[in-house]
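[Amino acid chain]
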Amino acid sequence: FRPLWTSSPTESPLSVWAPEELIPRGKFLGIQRGSNSVKERVALGHYATTSFSGPAAVSLLEVTDQQHSGFFAKHPRDDLHRFMEVFFPHPVRFRQIWRQQQSSSKPLCP
């Protein structure tokens, strides 16, 4: 996980994390980095924790192409990539909906 934001140095710990390297792993070596299945993992957003350390376990969606998976299959990923682009497209743009600006305390003259 990659940290995106923390509430440090406040007293209440909170942090937001982005998942990274969602590579399926398995027993066999090869083009899929340890898996004999054609699959992709999808993170459904960022993850918040009530500490400054990353989440221990999260739920992910794993999409497997059953037709092209298996020990003796060629493992083409083109169909899976097209499926992912249609059903899980990347956002076209982002809009900021929240921001916290830090301000320092300044003494006021009496």
